[in-house]
């Protein structure tokens, strides 16, 4: 696999370089609530710009339906990217249209442009190879070399991730390389005890990773919305909590096979509604009232998880323990994150929401061994799947 260093060694002065980044940041309206993914790609953009490249950055944001949708505009990201790089960003208001063509054509050496959301074009995510290819042709025409630094999107077989590198000399950016190197340490020989903490809303999203990790781990701690399907499988009623009815049997089977290694919450914060001002109380996991829903794990669960983490030598954490965006339901995520910061060993925070939680709760990124920029991507890597973006770079 050729890398950014190889490209820089070739020389990029005056060359147009397409950088696929994952700038899919959480937004509140047009306000970026966590700019971690923008910061993560700065070294690559800066290195290219400093070396005199004409840099064309592209990303997706959210899941628009293949047509322009102002809600998902990358314009606020262009603004923030410019502030962080301390240089002006030329923003194209489309992806491969008039604006993109004129903006990229008028870049001088060292200039940086950002294209509008790639998913405003149906070709980006199309399952049809020809439709994706047609869009990739147009994207590739904007540059002479391709750098992939969008680790968070390498699991997507999308035009800008999979098809553009087939059309241009292609190089792996530093972020992609570092992510793959760190995550590979979790799939080989790991130092034991190896404790995995999983949260987030759906068991179905995590099933494959649970299957892949179960034979390797000493303990699998389960919180977040997905814990209620496991609690139900244990025979508890979960009130109005999030429940994947069709996964209950699967969870029961996992609990049987795990023989005590899957650890579930023993108490939860049960609320009358999904709202910051909803009435709420801590109840035992087996006593969730029929008219309430669990929105966080409780303090006894945090203590139980903390104890399991205390002796760990390797930890992987993916998914918040509760609705941490709402203050009354943030304590579980905060408590578990704090326990992970105290681990004497190798700790990895996988992805999107948990990485955002670390930063928005002000936990200090330095206290973790590695904070991945990829949610789904890090899970699929750990599942042992082939990542289309990485495969494309290897070709
Ligand atoms: C993510 O946030 O997980 C990545 O940016 C990929 O986004 P997607 O799940 O919408 O493809
Ligand atoms: Mg995602």
Mean pLDDT: 96
Largest sheet: 6 strands, parallel
Structural class call reads alpha/beta
Instruction: Please state how the strands of the largest beta sheet are arranged side by side.
Output: 5-6-4-1-7-8
Distance between the termini: 8 Å
Percentage beta strand: 15-25%
Q: What is the share of helical residues?
A: 25-40%
Q: Rg, please? A: 22 Å
Helical segment count: 15
Explain what the structure shows.
By secondary structure, the protein is an alpha/beta fold. The chain is 37% helix and 16% strand. It has 15 helices and 17 strands. The protein has helices at 4-10, 36-50, 75-85, 98-105, 129-140, 159-163, 174-187, 203-213, 227-233, 248-258, 299-310, 331-341, 352-360, 376-382, 388-394, and strands at 16-20, 27-28, 31-32, 54-58, 89-91, 112-114, 145-148, 170-172, 194-198, 219-222, 262-263, 267-271, 280-284, 293-297, 314-318, 346-349, 370-371. A 6-stranded parallel beta sheet has the order 5-6-4-1-7-8, sandwiched between helices. It has a 6-stranded parallel beta sheet with strand order 11-10-9-15-16-17, with helices on both faces. It has a 3-stranded antiparallel beta sheet with strand order 13-12-14. Strand 15 (314-318), helix 12 (331-341) and strand 16 (346-349) form a beta-alpha-beta unit. Helix 9 packs across helix 10 (248-258). The longest helix has 15 residues, at 36-50. The chain is elongated. The relative contact order is 0.12. The model has no long low-confidence stretch (mean pLDDT 96). Magnesium ion binds at residues 352, 375-376.
